Known about the structure:
The structure holds 2 protein chains of 2 kinds. Chain A is mainly α. Chain A has 3 domains: 8-58 and 68-165, Orthogonal Bundle (Cyclin A, domain 1), CATH 1.10.472; 181-269, Cyclin A, domain 1, CATH 1.10.472; 275-332, no CATH class. Helix content of chain A is 61%, strand content 1%. In chain A, strands 1-2 form a two-stranded antiparallel ribbon. In chain A, strand 1 and strand 2 form a beta hairpin. Chain B has 2 domains: 14-89, Phosphorylase Kinase, domain 1 (2-Layer Sandwich); 93-359, Transferase(Phosphotransferase) domain 1 (Transferase(Phosphotransferase), domain 1, Orthogonal Bundle), CATH 1.10.510.10. In chain B, 32% of the residues lie in helices and 13% in strands. In chain B, the strands form 3 sheets. Chain B has a 5-stranded antiparallel beta sheet with strand order 1-2-3-5-4. In chain B, strands 6-8-9 form a 3-stranded antiparallel beta sheet. The longest helix of chain B has 20 residues, at 108-127. Chain B is globular and about 60 Å long. The A-B interface holds A 1-3, 6-8, 47-51, 131, 135-136, 138, 140, 142-143, 158, 161-162, 165-169, 172-176 and B 1-3, 7-9, 45, 48-52, 54, 57, 60-62, 64-65, 67, 76-82, 84, 127-129, 157-158, 160-161.
Amino acid sequence: MADFITSTHRKKWILSPQDLIKNCQAANQRAVEALQKYGATRVECQPDGTLAYPGAPIQGDSGQGSLPEPLTVAEELLVRRFYEQKIQQVSAAFSFPYKIQATAILYFKRFYQKWSVMEHDPKHIMLTCIYLSCKVEEFHVSAEELGKGIQQDPQVVLKNELTVLQASVSMYFELIVYTPYRSVDGFIYDLEELKLAAQFIVDSMMLTDAPLLFPPGQLALAALCTANREEPKVDFDRYLQNMPGRQRQRHSYAELMGVLDSIDLLVKDTNQPVEADVRRIDRKLKYCRNPGLQDEGKGKRERKVKQKQKRASHDIPMVNALDNSPLDLNEMHGVKRRQSEGDVML
Amino acid sequence: MGSGETNGAGRYIKGVTLGEGTFGVVFKAIDRVTNRTVAVKKIRLGKYKEGVNVTALREIKLLKELQDPNIIELIDVYPHKRNLHLVFEYMESDLEAVIRDRNIVLSPADIKSYMQMTLKGLAVCHKKWVLHRDMKPNNLLLGSDGQLKLADFGLARIFGSPDRKFTHQVFALWYRAPELLFGSKFYGPGVDIWAAGCIFAELILRRPFLQGSSDIDQLGKIFGAFGTPRESQWPDMTSLPDYVEYQYSPPQPFRSLFPMASEDCIDLLQRLFTYDPRSRISAQQALEHRYFLTEPVPTKPHLLRRPPPRSEGPPELQSPAEPFVFSPPNKARRVQLFGGDIRTAGEANRESNPQDFRDQGTPGDTIMAPM
């Protein structure tokens, strides 16, 4: 459900505040007039799309005094809000996916852009909206199940379906609606990507001097900042600008930026060791830690070299090379490749 | 509000009945507002147990969002006398009628034109996250201007939600992608693309390309043509719910399947019939394939030869519910050449009890005759 740009939702159902006022007033006004004319505001939509006012027409002005008082626009709004909450409650009681209630609420709202709650019972319309939403979102619940679950006659659910659907009356059969839940997912997904990218940067940070030089918070910010720079997701600068004030930090924004830049630089400038170098240095390390190994090692090594020449294979996995030594990769930062030192120990 | 002269039923002057659909009658009508000829699909609401038919609702909700020259236009929807009426633009014919009509010669340029329109329509659907799920020649309608339009969105669905399971029981059997036949429930636009490949092949061969008689036989037909997929070709295959091992059969050279097709044509076919849905070409990529960029240029739609307009009246228009083989006997024999004699080897047995067959682990030569 993703192409909002070309959707009927965007084209027809993003209204202005003026539209809302106008629509509600018009519906309210029509209901008030019906009340005066027919003695009741109730409207029934016939299956063929025509409308019927079941109230008996009032002759002259005689009945006027005994007429019930119509709802005001503000009262109508309140009633609608109430039933919108109910939609959430009913959907939660059925443990429908969140999309169902969101779609149902939008159907309900659209419906009452055309009608007054005085004309169509919001309690019934609410149920029909939930039922229709289930259908459209392909979450199949029978009218009977729905009715049973809330102790309502399933016929009530079905009765208004066409009314709610109907073209030229309420929703023009425009049934695909977009709700912010998916958008939240989308934005969080962006941020998840940012998180992954930042973690990746932290991985390489951990292999530098940086953890010894900077507090973790700053390292994290630097990582996020760098990740965001590579593929911008958020306005990080603004976030950072607010940060010093929020955290009562000693650093100003400029200082913070300076710190982050130096972290970034540090990470970039650190060469990661290559396996061959490490193996060589590890050997060196072993011997210098325990010079006694050297003579013993010489014989071993010569044998090894001979074997190697035989097999023409030099595939000693790095893990093995490091197995017996307390060497930690984190200590290896800053090792530059030096070409000529290779055979020092021999 | 309410139905006036130009609203609801009053807007249309009812004409002859065009045919009987799955859930109601289709009749021709004139739209008084636009003076256009339209087709009105009447959907019974009579039973009223579950209100508006879900299939109809699907078609309405999706077509309201899909407006494109290569997708059927839903002009209006109105209820009348306990029926829901869907008003479509009137279409003269469909691609099945073209393929079936032996008086029509389909030049390579004509085929290219039909395929281009088909893929354009599909690309729009997929761009808007809609799977058609019932692509076949008689759902590709042809207007009097020669434009081809995707129709019948009764099985269509929105896709793209993570973890949304779909049914694999979609498409007419002959157009069903291998992942569906293996019971995949998480599939994407590739299923429509495979079907588009089948339609492409059908335009070239003038008969349905892979005419299986059951799910298993359909896979047999597919593997008989393109070879049994190896895991390197389609890594996820073995983890599909209904996966069964088929005896290895080598792929037929595409050239032998489509002797008359050009190099570009064969290359595109190969990409449409890629086993792994992840590496199958997309509709948009297919449209950018060099097949569409090289000579001959696609025939302009209005120059395409069309079968005589549907004769008006119900009897002729009832589309056969059963698969219908259009090919003359000699063509059918050619199918057998690369189809092997699968149909003879315990066919009835297999169909009546496919589960037994699956439980055997490696169904050997009794099931798949060597191709």
